[in-house]
Amino acid sequence: MTKAELVKALKEKAGLATLAQAEAAYESLFGIISAALKNGDSVSISGFGSFKAVNRKARKGRNPRTGKDIQIPASKTAKFTPGKAWNSIFPCS
């Protein structure tokens, strides 16, 4: 599903009058989540899952083009953990 398809579905499901309102809601939601993660906070959505900022340590890697070893610097990224409700939709084998 693309962003445009998601915005259209949001408009229909939420009963919003225009696609612009649905896009504003979409941008607001993801903006709030992004801002919280940048501040080091976690975001938990009951029945859906949680987002949290995690720190990756610096590590060694390999340049796939040249095969030379490189040093990958430490970084920060987002991690999503699905909620328990996802287990009934996508059961682990």
Give a verbal description of the structure.
Helices cover 39% and strands 29% of the residues. It contains 3 helices and 5 strands. The protein has helices at 3-14, 19-38, 86-89; strands at 43-45, 49-56, 59-62, 69-72, 75-82. Strands 1-2-5 form a 3-stranded antiparallel sheet, covered by helices on one side. A two-stranded antiparallel sheet has the order 3-4. Helix 1 crosses helix 2. The protein starts with a helix and ends with a helix.
Order of helices and strands: HHEEEEEH
Q: Distance between termini?
A: 25 Å
The number of distinct helices, counting runs of at least 4 residues, comes to: 3
CATH domain fold name: HU Protein, Chain A
Structural class: alpha+beta
**Going by CATH, what is the homologous superfamily?**
IHF-like DNA-binding proteins
User: Are there runs of 5+ residues with pLDDT below 50, and where?
Assistant: none
Shape type: elongated
What proportion of the residues is helical, as a percent range?
Answer: 25-40%
Count of strand segments:
5
Strand content: 25-35%
**What is the number of independent domains?**
1
Give the name of the CATH architecture: Irregular
What is the CATH C level class, in words?
Answer: Few Secondary Structures
Arithmetic mean of pLDDT = 92
> Strand order within the widest sheet?
1-2-5
Our Rg estimate from Cα atoms comes to: 18 Å
Give a short account of the largest sheet. Answer: 3 strands, antiparallel
